[in-house]
């Protein structure tokens, strides 16, 4: 219950949080993840899944989105480097 704005914020942050939590639990986001990256994804997901009932918790959403977006961007950029290295070397990395 709430205004349309509150409901949309809750819906968007929950969806993004669940995606980050799933990637952290699976250990894969464009490529296999290290334990540190998985932990950071879990932290970002936790911050996004907290209910935004006050300005402090709304700030937690902002931090969660920033952290999650930074990790997704980093993993996306590293995915290209690995693909290029495998293509150039001709070997298969397990």
Verbal overview:
The protein has three helices and no strands. The protein has 94 residues and is mostly helical. Helix 1 (4-26) runs antiparallel to helix 2, helix 1 packs across helix 3 and helix 2 (35-49) runs antiparallel to helix 3 (55-89).
Count of discrete alpha- or pi-helical segments spanning 4 or more residues: 3
**Annotation, overall tally of beta strands:** 0
Strand content: under 5%
Fraction of residues in H or I helices: over 70%
The major sheet is characterized as: none
Report the radius of gyration as a whole number of Å: 16 Å
Distance between the termini: 48 Å
Shape: elongated
Helix and strand arrangement:
Blueprint: H1 4-26, H2 35-49, H3 55-89
């Amino acid at each position: 219950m709430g205004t349309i704005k509150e409901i949309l914020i809750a819906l968007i942050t929950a969806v993004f949080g669940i995606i980050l939590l799933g990637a952290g639990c699976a250990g894969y986001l464009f490529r296999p993840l290290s334990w540190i990256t998985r932990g950071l994804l879990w932290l970002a997901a936790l911050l996004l899944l907290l209910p935004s009932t006050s300005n402090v918790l709304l700030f937690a959403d902002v931090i969660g989105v920033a952290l999650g977006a930074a990790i997704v961007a980093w993993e996306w950029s590293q995915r290209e480097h690995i693909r290029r290295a495998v293509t150039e070397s001709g070997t298969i990395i397990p």
